[in-house]
Amino acid sequence: MSHHKVNILGTPVSSLTMDELFSDWEAVIQQGQKAQVCITPVNSILAARATARVQTIYKNADYVLCDGVPVKWASEFLGTPIKQRITGLDVLPRVFPFALKNDFSIFLLGASPGVAETLKQVMEAKHPGVQIVGTFVPPFRAVFSQEENEQMIQVINAVRPDILLESLTAPKQDIWIAEHKHLLKVPLSIGIGGAFEVMAGLVPRAPKWMHAAGLEWLYRLIQEPKRMYRRYLIEAPLFIPLILRQKFSK
Fold first, then answer.
1. Which of 82, 114, 156, 227 could be bridged to 15 by S-S, CB 3.0 to 4.6 A?
2. CB proximity list for 83: less than 8 A, separation 6 or greater
3. Within 13 Å, how many C-alpha atoms sit on residue 81's CB side?
């Protein structure tokens, strides 16, 4: 689990290839360890910079993945390039065949009602024999009650999955995992973001050329302007001057 991390505005972002990442995860599960995986776009890094609680979570997380072209660019500009950009939409398609190959089980937590169950059906059809042992959709709210947290922990622990995929907004999903990891009987907990809808076929992903060109953010903004405008048009522009400050303050 030991690997190099790059400081991006105080958040230590993991420098790993996808192959290295999944090799690590295989060892984590087989050895009965516990690991938290955070997938961090620009808005999560800015949230961490603004909130000590979130910053602490990312500093203590086992894996903090580079989700987004601006994060990868920042690492290169700072002279400490991250090996590979790894988004939730890159990780999720690989998780299911990885689990099938290694006889690992998966639990799907979060997303909108019906999404996780649809994803379960789609992945079971695509990867016959994959063990998706449960789904659960918590209520849509900023903070869960103690009873709601206990219910989520109970349904997850009842089936003891090897991999928990949590699809809530970041950094909310990262906070929830960090605060409850010690109670979860799960080796690998991943805050996967909004990838469930895309993998379930409910929301289209950007064309491959846009993804390769680093323009997936533009596609998402066009598709969901009300949801994404703040992230891409208000928060993201703040990132560049902060990176410039980090670079030249040295």
1. 82
2. 15, 16, 17, 20
3. 5
* pTM metric for this prediction: 0.91
Q: Would you state the structure tokens that stand for residue 133, as one six-digit string?
A: 């042992």
Measured between alpha carbons, how far is 166 from 107 in angstroms, rounded to an integer? 8
Tens-place pLDDT, residues 64-88: 999 988 899 999 999 999 999 999 9
Sign of torsion over alpha carbons 172, 174, 178, 181? positive
> Among candidates 122, 149, 145, which has minimal Cα distance to 136?
149
Q: Cα 238–239–241 angle (5° rounding)?
A: 75
82 contacts 6 by C-beta, under 8 angstroms: yes
Nearest to 16 by CA among 1, 28, 35: 1
Handedness of CA 159, 162, 167, 173 (dihedral sign): positive
Q: Are 86 and 65 in contact (CB under 8 A)?
A: yes
- Tell me the C-alpha distance between 215 and 206, whole Å: 8
Q: pLDDT digit string (tens) for 11-44?
A: 999 999 999 999 999 999 999 999 999 999 998 9
Collapsing DSSP to helix, strand or coil, 226 comes out as helix
